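Suppose you are handed a protein chain with no further information: no name, no annotation, nothing but its sequence. What can you learn? This example shows the usual starting point.
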Amino acid sequence: MKARRRILAGLGIAATAALAGFAAVDASGSTTGASPRSSLTVMAPAAPGGGWDMASREAQQAMRAASIVNNVQVVNVPGAGGTIGLSQFARLPADPTQLMMTGTVMEGAITVNGSDVDLLDTTPIARLAEDYEVFIVPADSPFETLDDLLEAWREDPHGIAVGGGGLGGTDHLLAGLVAREIGVEPTQMNYISYAGGGEVLTALLSHTVDVGVSSYNDFRDQIEAGNLRALALSADEPVDGIDIPTFIDAGADVSLPNWRGLVAPAGISDEQRDELVEILDELMGSEQWQEVLERNNWVPVPLLGEEFEEFIAEDQARIDEIIEELGL
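A reasonable first move is to predict its three-dimensional structure. Written in structure tokens, the prediction is:
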């Protein structure tokens, strides 16, 4: 990767039920007194099938297959860009057998949703990998290239409907950064927020939106099947295995990596944190995790313990600055 990294570059019954499910896992006492080596619970703060869920379940399977942890379970707590899950997680006792998957999307949601807790109300353990966003259009779209889309967007800013994830998330930030790059006021975007990549895909295929924004993996199967055309990838430079030009190479000086990492509850001891750091360091060094990275076209960006905590503080500040600059 290049040395420079442009990071510039109600909720209803379902959410309530998910919260209750996670609380039940915690309240059951099933992990009380257990060692992280024997049992871990990973919260995916999103619905099944999304990016955090995928990362959580890939880590689950790799830790099991590599015999790093005996038993790993994943629970889903969806809603509000991950901040529902974060709020729930921040109230947990200092239990080293609990982890939560997090990343760039949550940082944006913390600010946009006015969350009363943030990632520094947890114990950062490890940054694992990053993936990338794509701009995508239906195969029959008149936009053959990113330039085609940007020209039409510049001429009629509100006439281009952009579909993506929650407000303040990486989809929304990337769309805003690209809009600003071409002289479109980000607050004037016709941005339509969906619960996840699956809904964005449905909107694209039904021509409800002109362009979709989400993780590459959300759209990969449809791209390979020829139903969708990818216009640009949000990486700093081309990624092995992904035959899509970067926004930079396609003519828009924008990039936005989407990192994934794991945090533990606040208040755990230094010894407990060190044990979790060791577990995740073993995960990232395992053959099974290397297969996960290759299969998903994820780029490894390992960062552990205090260094990861420092990164989160800096990255949250950058995301906050982007949101303020874009007026989002």
